[in-house]
Prior knowledge:
The protein is of the alpha+beta class. The protein contains two helices and four strands; from the N terminus they run βαβαββ. It has helices spanning 15-25, 42-53; strands at 3-8, 32-37, 56-63, 66-72. The protein has a four-stranded mixed sheet with strand order 1-2-4-3, covered by helices on one side. It is globular and about 30 Å long. 23% of the residues are buried.
Amino acid sequence: MNREILDARRLLCPLPVIRTQDKVKKMLSGQQLEVICTDPGVMQDIPAWCRINGHQVIETSADEGEYIVILQVGE
């Protein structure tokens, strides 16, 4: 599976969600996006945005101050 990566490190809320939204608009249904952030708020913000907009969170993880959300683009 081809996965796009979005580097949103050093950005604070709401910028990681806005950058995620902008990137997803350019992607096709079924594609995956890995968002790498340093703002811990994305662990709630991006999944909430996904639920509202019909995308699916595949995985979340946190490691040494970096927070990763992998999502699959919906219809």
